From TrEMBL:
List of residues that carry 4-aspartylphosphate: 25
Protein name: Response regulatory domain-containing protein
Domain of life: Bacteria
Domain Response regulatory, first and last residues per copy: 1-90
InterPro entries: Bact_response_regulator, CheY-like_superfamily, Sig_transdc_resp-reg_receiver
Keywords from the named record: Phosphoprotein
Keyword Phosphoprotein belongs to the record: yes
PROSITE patterns, per database record: RESPONSE_REGULATORY
Gene3D superfamilies: 3.40.50.2300
Length: 96
């Protein structure tokens, strides 16, 4: 697992690692989670990476963008639900 101090750093990290899954917050410095997801979906090498968004305030906006996010979790969220979602997305990706 890797983390980045801000959205722009997250995009750099995603481009270099091409992870199996990205979990991002909506509110980040330099680039929001929405902007990160838009940049990932615009990059053909990153389009297939599932994205989970966690949000304290912007979940409604993100929920309308089903083209960007595989799941949206409102804060506070239950960690067991998040872990189950990560496992489920991992299985789905393995079946593609």
């Amino acid at each position: 697992m890797h983390d980045a101090p801000h959205g722009a750093g997250a995009l750099t990290l995603v481009r270099s690692l091409e992870p199996d899954l990205v979990i991002t917050d909506f509110m980040m410095p330099l680039m929001t989670g929405l902007e990160l997801a838009e940049a990932m979906k615009a990059d053909t090498a990153l389009q297939g990476i599932p994205i989970i968004l966690v949000s304290g305030a912007q979940g409604g906006i993100a929920r309308s963008r089903t083209d960007l996010f595989d799941l949206v979790f409102d804060k506070p969220y239950a960690m067991d639900r998040l872990l189950t979602a990560v496992a489920d997305l991992g299985r789905e990706k393995g079946q593609r």
